Amino acid sequence: MKTLEKVNYKGFIWPLVVGIVLWCITPWRPSGLTPQAWEMFAVFVATIVGCITKPLPIGGTTLVGLVFTVLLGLAPMKDVVNPKTGVVVNQGVLSSFGNSAAWLIAMAFIMAHGISKTGLGNRIAYIMIQKFGKKSLGIGYAITGLELILGALIPSNSARTGGVVWPVVQSISEEGYHSEPHSPSRKKIGAYIDFTAFHANILSTALFITGAAPNMVAQQLAAQKGYQMTWAGWFFTAVVPVAVATLIIPYVIYKIYPPEITETPDAKKWAEDKLEAMGPMSVPEKIMTAVFCLSIILWVLSGFFKIPQLDATFVAFLAVALLLITGVLTMKDALAETGAWNILIWLSILMFMAGKLISYGFIGWFSKLVQNGLQGISWGLVLGALVLLMFYTHYFFASGTAHMTALYLPFLSVAVATGAPLGLSAMLLAFTGAINASTTHYANGPASILATTGYVTQKEWWKMNFVLGLIYLAIFGFIGTAWMKIIGVW
Fold first, then answer.
1. Are 195 and 464 a contacting pair, CB within 8 Å?
2. CA atoms of 147 and 154, how far apart (whole Å)
3. Does the CA dihedral 223-227-228-230 come out positive or negative?
4. 34's torsion region: left (phi>0), alpha (psi -120 to 50) or beta?
5. What secondary structure does DSSP assign to 324-384, as a single string?
6. With a threshold of 0.85, does the pTM exceed it?
7. Tens-place pLDDT, residues 355-402
């Protein structure tokens, strides 16, 4: 007998309560706001709360929010056009699914399927361990290097960790050194490389605009304030602070959370055996490598030379088309990549809602209100405070996407309103959305995976992450800011 799918109905309680309360106080809304602006705010906040409580997966939650947006008369289904001028006077919700960033990352997910299907991701992992795996510290740097490479190849930080990195960590720990989770042997080496793998994921997320979904949210919201983030622009802005952090973080972890085993010649042998079993690169692997390299080149060219035909989203479509034409992927593969279509739905909807908050004047009102309250305070202090708030408020969020969607645009608006440079503010807050995963064991998908393996206790996770969080803030706040000044971001 067929049964109903499981739904977390308790997860609807808080979104409904928050949404209804905010909606009911519309008559007593702050002065300067239209009823529509406040009502849109109520629906938006309720949707973000739903993304946290997760009554449904995030795609389903945002679809419910979209339905309420239409039912409550805050947006039509189709664009409303002035018949005399042909100008869109009210953007419809269907137009949201033309969001270029959502399509870019959806196509990147399909490209990443090719990395997994061809075995290219595993080959890269084994090569990294083979080259740097003679010592435990070397394995830490190898895992970090692996993540940085995969950050360009796989746009989901959870997919990188769950699909490639964690299986490698598990195999090295258990097969190579009998370092088992939930036992004293976890400290042999498993705990060290498990925790290092998590921070490697933070670095790979910060290095590429396609490193994780919150980065794409920041890109879209920054564009609404007039700042354009390109793939190449993000990479060259991030490369110096990420390089510094890449050198420091694995070593700091090695010192504050040292493995019992320091020499690891077996890891090199393990990787060599895996590579030997794989054999030489297959034709699909070679094609996948060539298509990916072409995509990187075109993304860099589009960022530097602003060639209209090389729009970043078009490049992703081109790459997928080439993978289909060459037979590396099939349409069945593309359609089965549920992560692509999930993000296309929820990212498009959240960006549409954020756009409505702007068009109804809520964001402008909020930034002006805060600006008036911060008169006389230097923009440097304001921006520093906003970065700290963006970082430490992540203790209250279990989703980087929800956190970024809720706070990025208001914080960016406040920073700019107090005189902070737009480019510096946009990038610092965006980077903070990547490094603030260094907080809790529920901070994001990779944290949920690696903090529950049994290698690192919750107390250890919180304690060490607090220390490493301070290091991230120092690197991106000081070195990152100085680097952005050198390259002309502000």
1. yes
2. 10
3. negative
4. beta
5. HHTTSS-HHHHHH-HHHHHHHHHHHHHHHHHHHHHHTTHHHHHHHHHHHHTTTS-HHHHHH
6. no
7. 888 888 887 787 777 777 777 789 999 999 999 989 998 887 767 887
